[in-house]
Amino acid sequence: MSDPAVEVAAHQESLTRLTSNTGPIRKDAPTATKAHELWTRNGKPTSARIMVRRAIGDSIRAQYSGALADRQAIVLVGAPASGKSTVLRTMIEPNRSDWIVVDADEIKDLLLEEAVRDGSYNQIVPAEVRALEGDGERFFPREFAALVHAESVVIADWLRQEAIAAGLNLVIDGVLADPIEAEELGAQLAVAGYTINEVQLEICENVSIERMLQRWSKGYVNALAVGGLGGRWVPPSYIGTLYKPGSTQSRCYESSEHLAQVCGAVATFTRYDVPQPINFRLTGKWRRVRPDEPLRRI
Hints:
- The protein has helices spanning about 5-20, 45-65, 85-90, 105-120, 120-125, 125-135, 150-165, 180-190, 205-225, 235-240, 250-260; strands spanning about 40, 45, 70-80, 100-105, 170-175, 195-200, 265-275, 280-285, 295.
- By secondary structure, it is of the alpha/beta class.
- The chain has 2 domains: about 1-65 and about 105-165, no CATH class; about 70-100 and about 170-205 and about 245-298, 3-Layer(aba) Sandwich (Rossmann fold).
- About 35% of the residues are buried.
- About 45% of the residues lie in helices and about 15% in strands.
- It has 11 helices and 9 strands.
- A 7-stranded mixed β-sheet has the order 4-5-3-6-7-8-9, with helices on both faces.
């Protein structure tokens, strides 16, 4: 019987290489689902693939059929493994059903589960991975999340647009490291009459990677024993892009602050530092009474 610790370490090394910017498990890889020849014709998804996307969207809508139409939005900003889901639970429990939660990770899971169910999973697994599996290394679906990333963005956008059009209470959980993207999101919500409560969780690069690896390895070891989707893997190379060279401060920090300053619809802005082990340390909270006023620390 193999030593799980040795197996985890070897597999971590493989995934780090395979999910690098040039590796076969990257969001623009040849087997990525959005452009895969199985489901794309002339650059557009086939009708069958559109039906798959709609079915996944319907399954998520069904979870939140009781969402209130109060035009409230919670925008969670932070690098991977910063604890956004944990903070969200403190904000909306026990009234989670009042909100639509657009979670890209959940959508990725549903896409991967559908691929396993319909047999197309074998089509998206790169040849290099199949060779490693032939040598005995074990892989699990969540480790191929990058290959369904583009489709998850499409579905998330559909859900977000529909929720905003209906004025439903909405949770947007994302990295949001681009100030322009953040500003565009704020403007869209403001035009639709939303009040935004923004929360940013600041975590340094090495802690983000360390916590991601801890979370992934726990899921991987469990999958080795009982199967399932496995641990959620995020390429360390991607996490590195969220930080400026020589700085411990994330791009999410600047982007979230930009959104809070320029968007009058942001009623509250709360920031936490997230050291390791996980421990949310409140570093500031600001409030805006009217859209034409600046944020004021409280």
